[in-house]
Amino acid sequence: MHPPLTLHRHPMCAEIIEEFQKCHLDHPIGKFFGECTELKIKLDRCFRQEKSIKRKANFEQSKKLKERLQAMRKEAAEKSSEEKFMGA
């Protein structure tokens, strides 16, 4: 099973998606007997590669966000400790 074959959601795999959909249109019965299997395999590989790239980008983005949050927490902790020191 594959995700919905919308071209705008899978720009990396657009060409293979078009070929796969064309194969299904050209072989309405043959598609059930493996006529489009090679394209399906290519499509699955492309989706895996696309997902891997997105996963890496999301991981890098989350690392930057975590670093920023830690810096903000550290700054807030330093501020509150200074206020306690000045108030005492």
Automatic annotation (TrEMBL):
Tell me which PROSITE patterns the record gives.
Answer: CHCH (PS51808)
Its main subcellular localisation, reduced to a broad class, is: mitochondrion
Asked if Disulfide bond is a keyword of the record, the answer is yes
One GO cellular-component annotation of the UniProt record comes to: mitochondrion
Q: Which InterPro entries match?
A: Cyt_c_biogenesis_Cmc1-like
Q: Which UniProt keywords apply?
A: Disulfide bond, Mitochondrion
Where does this one sit in the cell? Mitochondrion
Kindly give the Pfam families that the UniProt entry links to this protein: Cmc1
Q: Is Ubl conjugation among this UniProt entry's keywords?
A: no
Q: Which family does the record claim for this protein?
A: Belongs to the CMC family.
| Annotated protein name in UniProt | COX assembly mitochondrial protein
